[in-house]
Amino acid sequence: MIKSIKTWILVGFASLLLVACGQGGGGGSKKSKTLDDTKKAGFVKCGVSQGLAGFSNADESGNWSGIDVDVCRAVAAAVLEDAEKVKYFPLSAKERFEALKAKQVDVLARNTTWTLTRDAELGLTFVGVNFYDGQGFMVPKASGMKSTDDFRAGMSVCTNIGTTTELNLADFMARKGLEYKLVGFEKADEARDTYGAGRCDAYTTDKSGLAAQRTVLPNPDAHIVLPETISKEPLGPVVRQGDPIWEDIVRWSLNVMIEAEEYGINSGNADSLKSSDNPAHKKILGVEDDMGIKLGLDNDWGYRIITQVGNYGEVYKKHLQDSGILPGNRGANELWTNGGIIYVPPLR
Ligand SMILES: N[C@@H](CCC(=O)N[C@@H](CS)C(=O)NCC(=O)O)C(=O)O
User: Fold this and answer.
1) CB of 102 within 8 A of CB of 88?
2) How far is the CA of 157 from the centre of ligand 1 (A)?
3) How many angstroms separate the alpha carbon of residue 188 from the centre of ligand 1?
4) Whether the predicted pLDDT of 5 surpasses 80
5) Taking the CA of residue 243 as centre, how many other CA atoms within 13 Å lie in the half-sphere pointing to its CB?
6) How far is the CA of 220 from the centre of ligand 1 (A)?
7) Contact indicator for 320, 67 with CB cutoff of 8 Å
8) Both 223 and 303 in a single domain?
9) What residues line ligand 1, using a CB cutoff of 6 Å?
10) N or C: which end of the chain has fewer CB within 10 A?
11) Sign of dihedral through CA atoms 203, 209, 212, 216?
12) Which of residues 243 and 11 earns the better pLDDT score?
């Protein structure tokens, strides 16, 4: 009797250890209110910008596209088996967090910078980074300004309110000891057009935003982006706190696009790589190891994302390089294996 109690204690202790080491247990039951509601609705509720070329932008027929839009399309491919099953909610910078908290949207994929305050105070969770950015300035070429060293006291700067942009500008000008006039707008097109009409000496936002907005100014060649980058703006998708399964689904829907690029899987070769004997290919494409089941999905989730949306490199090329918005090399947004800082935890 004593012996069998001892055995049971040992067995119990061993399984505790296994669980503690993360080796025990299966997927467990996966209960997500957001996932259930999304399936019931038949679409992903996606918060996007009010129009930012390359990131989230609607054409005349109301079709949304961009690298942020593709995060929501990836989630739809993962959970609803169809990347088209997304409803887009255009949100200004000022409105975006309230809209997410009020459940008007379930994913916010809108050039949003991950900061401590937003992470800690708003009841939200940033799931990753889909574009590493930094803030810059655009000025008219005719101004003769070549760098921020040419800034002078009393200058006016157009930008958007409710952004990190506004805060970084204040810090930057304080460091320079320059008084300036903030010309703030809730809508990005108003900030851009007011600058375009010559009513501000400079326009400031994330450098990707400057590149995108420059393309829609009446005469893009009449403006230059100054060389300085004054901040770190890691942009990424956000979800509400409190639904860890949904959080994981959104996080890994982004991660699998990046992992696919790293392992050479794209929308064109995913089918043939299903029979690859590379274990990484098998995991990503759902042939082995139940990655999808662990997320509370099915194992084809990654395959669907890659074939319907593309890997990260394909998405980047299509929306940012081929569109002419950021035609040069990817810089920080290159994979870590190619000298950039795009790096995701392993899909295993
Ligand atoms: N990344 C910054 C700035 C984001 C931001 O909203 N920028 C403006 C200027 S490019 C914008 O996206 N406007 C588009 C819109 O409001 O629809 C932040 O998270 O605060």
Assistant:
1) no
2) 15
3) 7
4) no
5) 22
6) 20
7) yes
8) no
9) 49-52, 92-93, 111-113, 160, 163-165, 188, 205-206, 209, 233, 235
10) N
11) negative
12) 243
How would residue 6 be classed by pLDDT, with cut points 50, 70 and 90?
low
CA-CA-CA-CA torsion for 334, 336, 342, 345, nearest 10 degrees?
Answer: 150
Domain assignment present for 75: yes
Quick one: tokens of 124?
């939200």
Contacts of residue 23, defined as CB under 8 A and 6 or more positions apart, other chains included, come to none
pLDDT tens-digit readout, 165-213? 999 999 999 999 999 999 999 999 999 999 999 999 999 999 999 999 9
Task: Identify the domain containing residue 64 by its residue range.
Answer: 33-132+235-329
State the residue for tokens 């839009």.
69
Task: Give yes or no: residues 325 and 245 share one domain.
Answer: yes
* Secondary structure (3-state) at 131: strand
> Do the beta carbons of residue 38 and residue 85 sit within 8 Å?
no
pLDDT above 70 coverage of the chain, percent: 92
Contact (Cβ atoms closer than 8 angstroms) between residue 131 and residue 319: no
- Amino acid 288: pLDDT: 96
The pTM is what?
0.91
Q: In what order do the strands lie in the sheet with 180-185?
A: 180-185, 155-160, 202-206, 135-140, 223-225
Q: How far is CA 296 from CA 28, 241, 309, in A?
A: 9, 18, 21
Same domain assignment for residues 240 and 324: yes
Q: Is residue 243 part of a domain?
A: yes
